[in-house]
Amino acid sequence: MTRKRLTWTSAVTVILLSTLSSLGALPASVATTSNSDNEGEISHHLQKGNNALATGDISTAIQSYETCLSLDSNHRYCNINLASALVDANESDDDESIKKERMSKAISLLRHVLTLYPKDGDAAFNLALLLQDTSNSEETTRESAKLYQIAVEAMDMNPEEEDNWDALANMAAAKQELREFSGPYGARRSYERAIVLLEGTVQEYNTYIDQMINRDDSEKVEYDHEGYQHAQNQVNSINAYLSKLYYGYGTILSELSPSECLELMTEESLLMDTKDGIDEASAKIVCETNAVNAMRMAVDLDLNNVVAEHMLAAMTGGDNAERDGYNGKERASNEFVSALFDDFADSFDEKLGALGYQVPKLIGEAAYDLLGISGGEPFQSVLDAGCGTGLAGRFLRPLVTGPLVGVDLSKKMLEQAAECTMVKGCGLIAEDSTERDDLEEEKEEDERSKKPLYDKLVSSDLETVTLTELVSELSEDAIAGFDLIVAADVFVYIGNLQEILLNFAKLSNGSDSKASYLIFSCERIEDTKAAPTGWKLQSSGRYAHSKSYVTSVAEKAGFDLIRYDEIVPRMEKGEEVQGHLFVFAIGGAIDEDNVHYEVTMTTTDEL
Among residues 190, 167, 186, which one has the least CA distance to residue 178? Predict the structure, then answer.
């Protein structure tokens, strides 16, 4: 069996995906099935398909495997390899309907194999990859985790089989998302096994390189420049994967509760010394210490792993930051934000929906309330700062008659937002079309489905983006600024808000005679925990801000607070995240009756 190297697709939960494995040339005793009358012909078509697949002749491979299955529809390896070939065919096809049909057939073939051979590790591994490629739901993650475990158990049952670290790593990531940390096939143990396997491979390459360069003549391997370059490239590539594995391992250990840490102390560990974890308090210290060490390893192994770098800063507070009267780095790097949300883009709406994410809706409601303050007239222009996939845009579009502009660092998130209209995308649950019988209504919906939700989308840094970048080519009439700027959960990746609020003031359309508005959310922290800066980089990797800090820095930028709400932005690990929502005005005459209007905390149960 051969496996192609996998790629990482999420920096948040660290889910791994890969191209499918296919089975190469097999001994006749293995390649045959119960259909002995056609044994030779079946083997011929299987081998012909394998040869074609190996050389990239996908159409011949598909035809050969299909011929094999016409002779024996239950042939294990023809089913598995046909599924692999169908997926490979999709890589060079732009027809989405055909690609979807192939994917469905591939999944059906692999399910058929597992019906006949429930412990087939190759079919299980491939099916898990395909399922994760088609859905990010918890149900899919749970099924995939079980399938990866079948693949790992098959590996464990056959010591002669190649050790497939990718199955271990994928299982670890899936079980981490499901918070299944403990046990022989839990996330923690699976990460450890994958790490040990890969480190062993790195050691083999390093030994080969060392023998080629550094040993004495009696032990030295003849120098081969091409071989040296290949070995060095392999080491670099594997170290990049190891970096991600250590990142996943470190995040698990940092997330564990004291009781979960104590439970892990009773299990054998390949990477941790657990003898000091004798009670919940000491066990938590062991977890935290090893989490930091793992994150440092992730950074050392791959200096381009900006997600690990950011999380290391969050875990350590910038090493001696708090001792020195400082709460950590002032903002997440652009590279971190781009990497985080590029990887998160495909599953963003679904994941946040499962967490009861409320901020876009709350911002939309606050913006609607502002229309009453401003005389009931719609906004002429709105900037969705850090728009992501467009979740807030869904609530803003009906409130603006002019341009709605979105800006974000993540180009993949912007690609998702670009697909949004008033009737699809951006978190909208599709309406049952059978309930819409009126032809005029259907025609109106068709027109709305063609018009993009956003008039312009820009990839840029919010601290430095200019009005010209945002509004050029939008309108023949000059746009002096935005009537409303919103930022939904943007500031959780920025500690010091001074620069971004100063830039928002420049982008606003406020004047002596007319006010413009700013709405944004933050995670909330008390002044005593945020001292001395007023903000803090938390162990979650997100920033929290105190109310007094936010109002102070906003006022220095020229904004006046007109509304403040304590909110619950979302749930995390079953607990409510503490947040707050701010509404500011800049310019114009502020109605004193609306200044500092405070609302009691909004919980997810109330929405």
Answer: 186
